[in-house]
Amino acid sequence: MRSAVSRLRRALRAESPRLLRLALPLAVSQLGIIGMGVTDVIVAGHAGRDDLAAVTIGFYAWDMALLLIFGVMLANGALIGHRHGAGDEAGLRRQFQQSLWLALPLAVVSALAIVALRALMPVLQLPAEVITIATGYLTPTIGTAALLPLVILFRTTAEGMGLARSVMWLNTGAFLLNIPLDIAFVLGAFGQPGMGGAGCGWATLIAFATLLLAWLACSFALPALRHQRLWHAFAPPSARDIGHTLSIGLPIGLSLLGVGGFFAVLPMLMASLGAVAIAGHAIAITVDTLMLTVPLGLGQAMTVRVAHELGAGNPHGARAVCVAGMTLSAALALLQALPTVIWRTPLAALFTSDPEVAALGALLLLYAAAYRLFDSVQVAAGMALRGYKDTRVASAINIAAYWLFGLPLCWLLAMGSPWHPGLGVTGFWTGMLTSIALAASAIAWRLARTSRRATGAASGSTGPAAPRTVEA
Length: 472
Known about the structure:
The protein is mainly alpha-helical. It has helices at 2-47, 49-85, 89-120, 128-160, 164-188, 199-221, 223-228, 239-269, 275-291, 293-311, 315-342, 344-349, 355-387, 392-415, 425-457. It has one domain.
């Protein structure tokens, strides 16, 4: 027992400062991207109840449609991290170029997915006004979807190299640009007539196009990226390299689809409960999504640090990253849950002036606080596994926990059965809590097993290598 505690203390002392230095700008960068969606919800909520419900439906619908593609491109970050940790500049450059070849057809697929989704909107059992606003929101989202794989390519390349501050500044810039654009297009300002909730889609398209142009400029101007000569001697498409990225990225995408797709479907299933239920759920899930930036930033830092240590041939160092990261994740989740419970009423009031919606949102924030504890563990463990290139088992766990177990449970608890009355929207959140508890436990166990096996396989190696420098 004493030896275990001693190892934990050593890992925390050695790795926590490195993780936190890397995680802080990554969390801020996540806040920038997620903050764009939060801004959409807040501004749309002040445009009206129907606008809030429509933007919520539209946002989660396009989010679900693109999660698989988003996950595929995330594999680039882990692979870049291994090349960077090994000091393989030629391999890093080739990985970037092959991922670009992969991103181009994915951009076309992304756009077509939103076209199909927009055509299916009238099928939902929602008021005609909500459908009209949601359809208008999805029209410019076709362009945003086409840009997404390319933006993720540049972002994950920089993250894999440890360029956390660069990612932070660009994502924050896109977030800040989105705020006046939302106000102008949704509510009307700066000479622009208000478009209601549909205006959020146009604001996001302009912000993403600006972000992509900024990344293109950085690939030539930022010293660390310029040094890698990413565009030098551009290689033709390689089925082997692209297939390797897909073999890691597809399970990540399926895992994201298992989790994010689940949350995208919930508002649609809540349609029969009315606009108040959807809007109240939107408040709670938006606050939780905002809090998600902290474990996401820490999880991304764990992916990068694990990949760097393994690339440098140091699995013992990678395991220390996991120990420190999981401990920090649990501690930070507790710090997030407490203020959510204490300030749930004023938090809900920020999103709407409708007293009925605000009251329901405040109630659901209690569930969101509990959900945050389990989800932080699941996110940290799952993202650390990406550094090990171990993505398939976590994907299977998420799909089983959310779709095979969680979705039927949510429906039964919310809508009722011959044996018990329905709990409404709180039933959905009770099912969500049960699902994430199962997923978090299973994925954390998988990480412990994977990291232990990696260190066991290297038990005859020498001491840990010095960590590669990352941008603080």
